[in-house]
Design brief:
Layout lengths: L17 E2 L8 E3 L6 E5 L6 E7 L4 E5 L2 E3 L3 E5 L6 E12 L5 E17 L1 H4 L8 H11 L5 E5 L8 E4 L1 H5 L10 H4 L2 H13 L5 E5 L13 H4 L13 H7 L9 E5 L17 H16 L9 E3 L14 H9 L5 H5 L10 H15 L2 E3 L15 E3 L2
Parallel strand pairs: 2-9, 9-12, 9-13, 10-12, 13-14
Antiparallel strand pairs: 1-3, 3-7, 4-5, 4-8, 6-7, 8-9, 10-11, 15-16
Helix pairs in contact: 5-11, 8-9
Length: 386
């Protein structure tokens, strides 16, 4: 049995009874067969009730949340079917003081967690097809089944849950301050590509990456110690504590990982022999599937492999060597289990389509990572960062 420690990131309201800041109106919660859990803080009261209603005020359920000594509450709802048309309101209330807090316009669908370093964090502003995406959203109401959320890093600001239309509304006039253009491009384009394949399910994206991070920062120290030749640094486990723990009680469909450059100067290793990056990457997949609420050992885990060329390239770098080697070992299921059961398309075709579409969205960048046109890079060593 899994033991999930409730970890509160921050509170979005000064109210004594509130939801954690990882939740909000317009968000997407994981649909059946998993239970969606919500949590927050309360002030002394022990008479709490959580209510789930449709936007038409049809009662779906009322439950009594679990409470903890540190004035935290948590409630896990019964599995709710995915739907792009049925919106819900969730209210936590205190019958003693009549205090309450509500998040509204909630959808149930599939929730994905995006993590890694700068290639994951790269803002949408620096991609070739950003304007086509905005036009599709504002003119054609495309991707309306997507919702995005993220916590601040060194390349992206905090992003409360928001719809694509609201996120893109200012992109034409003020692109530098547009919420959509500040969001992780890899995380968004994964959702966009998935939305083009699967239109009948809501898609929620959680972005947490941090530019320049190492894989050791995303693992706890006990887990790191299971792999020989891991890099030992005072920053190890930093993002595990600040960017992983706050979401462990959030039920997910799966994870998307894009990282590796900052580990390429270490030991590439071998997961089968238990050392280096190969072991750490395999261990991270197994660890997250183990510690996340209601996660299963075959839940989808998508890994973007690093290019074997460019200023930080190499045939044996980071995730590339792990991915290449894992295909020959029994651990191949760790990577190839991006089994998007949302569609009847074969798994291999879904992965190929999404990777090709991600590739086409991203701009060509030359040495120094300064955006250039394809033509101006013809005589230079270039790297397509996707």
């Amino acid at each position: 049995m899994k033991t999930i420690i409730l970890f509160i990131l921050s509170i979005a309201s000064s109210s004594s009874l509130t939801f954690n800041s990882t939740f909000g109106s317009y968000m997407i919660l994981q649909s059946e067969p998993k239970q969606a859990c919500v949590y927050g803080t309360y002030d002394e009261s022990t008479n709490l009730t959580l209510s789930l209603r449709t936007s038409e005020n049809v009662d779906i359920l009322k439950i009594v949340p679990q409470t903890y000594n540190s004035n935290l509450w948590k409630a896990c709802m019964k599995p709710i079917p995915a739907s792009i048309s049925t919106k819900y309101n969730i209210t936590i209330s205190d019958d003693n003081s009549n205090a309450s807090s509500t998040i509204h316009s909630i959808l149930f669908g599939d929730v994905w967690y995006c993590a890694g370093q700068s290639n994951m964090a790269l803002p949408l502003l620096h991609t070739l097809s950003r304007n086509q995406t905005v036009s599709s959203i504002l003119v054609s109401d495309a991707y309306s089944n997507i919702r995005i959320h993220g916590i601040a890093g060194n390349m992206n600001p905090d992003q409360p849950w928001i719809t694509p239309k609201d996120a893109a509304s200012s992109c034409t006039e003020t692109p530098e301050t547009c919420p959509l253009f500040k969001y992780s491009s890899t995380c968004w384009y994964f959702a966009q590509s998935l939305s083009e394949l699967v239109t009948d399910r809501p898609i929620g994206m959680i972005h947490t990456s941090f530019g320049g991070s190492t894989i050791e920062q995303w693992l706890d120290n006990a887990t790191i110690s299971t792999c020989r030749n891991a890099t030992i640094d005072s920053s190890n486990a930093q993002w595990h504590e600040e960017r992983v723990l706050p979401y462990l009680s959030t039920s997910l469909k799966g994870w998307i990982w894009y990282q590796g450059e900052n580990d390429m100067h270490g030991v590439f290793g071998n997961s089968a022999l238990g050392y280096g990056y190969g072991c750490l990457m395999s261990t991270l997949v197994k660890s997250w599937r183990s510690i996340w609420s209601q996660a299963k050992e075959d839940d989808p885990f998508g890994i973007v492999t690093l290019a074997s060329s460019g200023s930080e390239g190499g045939r044996d770098i980071g995730t590339y060597i792990f991915f290449k080697g894992s295909a020959k070992r029994s651990e191949s299921s760790l990577i190839l289990s991006l089994s998007l059961s949302l569609s009847l398309l074969p798994l291999s075709l879904i992965i190929i389509i999404i990777i090709i579409q991600l590739f086409l969205h991203f701009q060509v960048q030359c040495d120094g990572h300064k955006p250039q046109t394809t033509e101006s890079c013809q005589t230079m060593r270039c790297l397509i960062r996707f």
